[in-house]
Amino acid sequence: MESRYNKRLDGRGFEETRPIIARAGVINKADGSAMFRIGRTTAYAAVYGPRELHPKHLQDPKKGVLRCNYNMMPFSAEERVRPGPSRRSREISMVTEKALLPVVNLEDYPNAVVDVFIELIETDAGSRCAGICAASIALADAGIIMKDMVAAVSTGVIDHRIVIDLDGDEEHLADLDVADIPIAMIPSTEEITLLQMDGKASKEELFRAIEMVKPVLKRIAEVQRKALKEKYKG
């Protein structure tokens, strides 16, 4: 089906992300930390642990616990965000945890907890994906044993056109049907650890979007690895 969306609002190619910057080791007092910026969305992640989990009745003698906390700062969006936990932040904390769990070897940390705190200081679409990317770098920076990175970005469908990394203006197009599809993936295996969709797309469009975003996610993983190498080189 022919699309009416023939040129992106910011001039990017349909398979092109916004500019990406990633850094490791940006918070001195954390065990591991990272910054991940894509376009005008900036996430910071700080990892503390592994450390003994309290209260003790929550401990698991066979494996550790991963806890993620996602938070948008009050001034991060155009409309002021109410401080403190919200239903949305709790939901994103949960899906972030599930996206990262498949690569973290928690069996190496019995009775312990690894805490990941993600702060969005600036948001313009793709905030949960930016948070996952930052958290993955921060976990590696903390020395947590991982099978691979987890890379994340949104793909989407705008009037039957597949696009990669929707920005805020694209998400809110009023005269076209828009589906936003955040995806996280383990690059080495192509295992998808997060797949959500806001909006409507056909099954065929969804499958095409997933295939189109895989090479992009592998490139993002290279950016994540480069950030770690930059910190530890020399």
Number of strands: 9
- Major pleated sheet: 5 strands, mixed
Mean pLDDT: 93
Give the count of helical stretches.
4
C-alpha-based Rg, rounded: 18 Å
- Which structural class best describes the helix and strand composition? alpha+beta
**What would you call the shape?**
elongated
Percent helix range: 25-40%
- The domain tally reads 1
CATH class: Alpha Beta
CATH architecture title:
2-Layer Sandwich
Fourth-tier CATH superfamily name = GHMP Kinase, N-terminal domain
The multimeric state of the shown protein is single chain
Report how far the terminal alpha carbons are from each other: 53 Å
Low-confidence stretches: none
* CATH fold description: Ribosomal Protein S5, domain 2
Strand content: 25-35%
Which series of helices and strands comes N to C?
EEEEHEHEEHEEH
* Strand ordering within the main sheet: 1-2-3-5-4
Descriptors for this entry?
Ribosomal Protein S5, domain 2; 5-stranded mixed beta sheet
Please give a structural write-up.
- The chain is α+β, with helices and mostly antiparallel strands.
- It has one domain (20-232): GHMP Kinase, N-terminal domain (Ribosomal Protein S5, domain 2, 2-Layer Sandwich), CATH 3.30.230.70.
- Helix content is 27%, strand content 29%.
- It has four helices and nine strands; from the N terminus they run E-E-E-E-H-E-H-E-E-H-E-E-H.
- The strands form two sheets. The protein has a five-stranded mixed β-sheet.
- Strand 4, helix 1 (87-100) and strand 5 (112-122) form a beta-alpha-beta unit.
- Helix 1 (87-100) crosses helix 2 (127-141) and helix 2 (127-141) runs parallel beside helix 4.
- The model has no long low-confidence stretch (mean pLDDT 93).
